[in-house]
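Lecture 7 notes: from sequence to structure.

We start with a single chain of 202 residues. Read the sequence below before looking at the structure.
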Amino acid sequence: MATHSSVSNLVVYLVGFAGTGKLTIARALARRIGAKVVDNHWINNPIFGLIDADGMTPLPDAVWSQVAKVRDAVLETIATLVKPETNFILTQELVEGDPIDEAIFHRVREAAARRGASFIPVRLLCEEAELVRRIQLPERVGQFKCIDPADAMNKSRRHVVLDPKTPTTLTLDVTRLSPEQSAAAILIHITRATGADANQYG
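Now the structure, written as tokens:
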């Protein structure tokens, strides 16, 4: 398997509920296409770390305006300062019908457009029982990630993962897929969406 490819200036946006495996999948895909991973927790954690977020206690609403400032700085850097050939994989939990989440999606899409990048949104779905299992894995503890099974069940039953509804969107059920299998499926979609040569990836 090749660790890098000739595909350049690509922005892949992995969207799914907490526990779906976004970061693990992003890392597996990054090894294949030579991309920088910008995990949503990488954006959240400078703020979450200051208030000792534990993944269970509800966060004060004011936190999100501070997180938004970090996100805006990251997206502005991606749009204007990074080498034009750089590939990115971003991760985010976004809910369908939430105006704030929809605005975040559009800001990411705009950043990709400003740098002239190919934009590939990937909607990751996972069945409730598996989502609850994953959200309680020991490796999530102490990382400022949600570890509340009740929250996972509530999201699964009452909300829907945001559907970007773009021509290049992929919806992928990862319930029974390993991170490597998920990355492979996303890679196939990328080659089809961008016209890249699949053989270059090994």
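The chain is about 45% helix and 15% strand. Keep this in mind for problem set 3.
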